[in-house]
Amino acid sequence: MCNLHRATELPKEEFKREVEKHLTGQETEPWEILYFKVYKSQLPVIEQALETAGLMLGDEKSRGYCLEMICADFLVGANLEGSDTKSCGLG
Predict the structure, then answer these.
(1) Distance between CA atoms of 58 and 34, rounded to whole angstroms?
(2) What per-residue string of b and e applies to 35-49 under the rule 16 or more CB within 10 Å gives b?
(3) Both 7 and 18 in a single domain?
(4) pLDDT digits over 20-62, tens only?
(5) CA within 20 to 30 Å of 21's CA: 43, 50, 85, 86, which one?
(6) How many structural domains are present in the chain?
(7) Residue 38 and residue 26 share a domain
């Protein structure tokens, strides 16, 4: 099947990934933009946590990856303490 014909059959996001793969030679993972409200008083803690994670993981890591690692660390700690994640809406 020719590339042009294939392009018309792909979903938009998959087409974008195929183009990026062709241009960069790298596979990309599907992604989403998350929106949620935080209070201005919370921003310093969030920014400091992301900055610290970035320093620990390497500056080339995205803020999304840093947030994922912060969340993973939280979940490991919660499991080690034997807490019930269902009680706080996580399970």
Answers:
(1) 23
(2) eeeeeeeeeeeeeee
(3) yes
(4) 888 888 777 777 889 999 999 999 999 999 999 999 999 788 9
(5) 50
(6) 2
(7) no
